[in-house]
Design a protein that fits this description.
With 256 residues, the chain is an alpha/beta fold. The protein has two domains: 121 residues, NAD(P)-binding Rossmann-like Domain (Rossmann fold, 3-Layer(aba) Sandwich), CATH 3.40.50; 112 residues, Rossmann fold (3-Layer(aba) Sandwich), CATH 3.40.50. Helices cover 28% and strands 22% of the residues. The strands form two sheets. Strands 3-2-1-4-5-12 form a six-stranded parallel beta sheet, sandwiched between helices. Its EC number is 1.3.1.106. InterPro entries: Precorrin-6x_reduct.
Length: 256
């Protein structure tokens, strides 16, 4: 029988793993919220809510109306607006917030990273001379590259890019990770890629391209992470699961 109620703001592999771990404790009513940006999301182990809440106030109202005991922010490291809304909603509703924030990648001495603050800065970093660029970004973040039509682009995304970009030289790959280093090396070499544009997502699922770039001595334009609001944070599913286990202990039934 569920004793506590938890809302998980998800969209990441770790959010799904966390939901599964908490479900196994058999004392939580769990709900996983997805923004709805991916057309065919991976199946989840708990009930799912798709779509926004109407900002921080809407989320706060939803938390109170449904009597949640805990809000978990397990969104993508670049979902800054959602994380900000979660922090404000927690303050407005009084429902405590914890975050699952996987650490970012750190450059090795052999890496050729150019670290930039935004997608627009990444476009500038490609330079004026034509290059073959691999864009490993979400489809909502591609429009700024139309300002640099001189490059030859290879775009990989989970969902098709619709409408297509207004660029003379662009190819599309639709695929869902994880992507290992060996396959990424083949893709980059076969496509003649000279530079990769990536976000510092962290984790193992998409690190293959970074390791492959190192092996092939390719440049990586790395978009830095946004500043997220302060919240009690954990770097792994295991650590956050242990925290929730201690914070919301099982209620022992008394005997006669």
């Amino acid at each position: 029988m569920a004793v506590y109620s938890i809302l998980i703001l998800g969209g990441t592999t770790e959010a799904r793993q966390l939901a599964e771990a908490l479900r196994g404790m058999n004392r939580f009513r769990l709900e996983l919220s997805l923004a709805g940006r991916t057309k065919a999301p991976v199946a989840q182990p708990v009930p799912v809510r798709v779509g926004g809440f109407g900002g921080a106030e809407g989320l706060a109202g939803y938390l109170k109306a449904n009597a949640f005991d805990l809000l978990i922010d397990a969104t993508h490291p670049y979902a800054a607006r959602i994380s900000a809304n979660a922090a404000e909603a927690s303050a407005l509703s009084g429902v405590p917030l914890v975050a699952l924030r996987r650490p970012g990648w750190e450059p090795h001495s052999e890496d050729r990273w150019i670290q930039v603050e935004s997608v627009e800065k990444a476009v500038e970093a490609l330079g004026h001379e034509p290059r073959r660029a691999f864009l490993a970004l979400g489809r909502q973040e591609l429009l700024p590259f139309e300002a640099a039509p001189q490059h030859d682009y290879l775009v990989r995304s989970v969902d098709p890019v619709e409408p297509p970009l207004s660029l003379p030289n662009v190819r599309y790959l639709t695929a869902r990770g994880p992507f290992n280093e060996a396959d990424e090396r083949v893709l980059l070499a076969k496509s003649g890629i000279e530079v990769i544009v990536s976000k510092n997502s962290g984790g193992a699922a998409s690190y293959g391209k970074i390791a492959a770039a190192r092996a092939l001595a390719l440049q990586v334009v790395m978009i830095q992470r946004p500043v997220l609001p302060e919240a009690p944070s954990f770097q792994t599913v295991e650590a956050l699961t242990a925290h929730v286990d201690q914070a919301f202990p099982a209620i022992q039934e008394r005997g006669e």
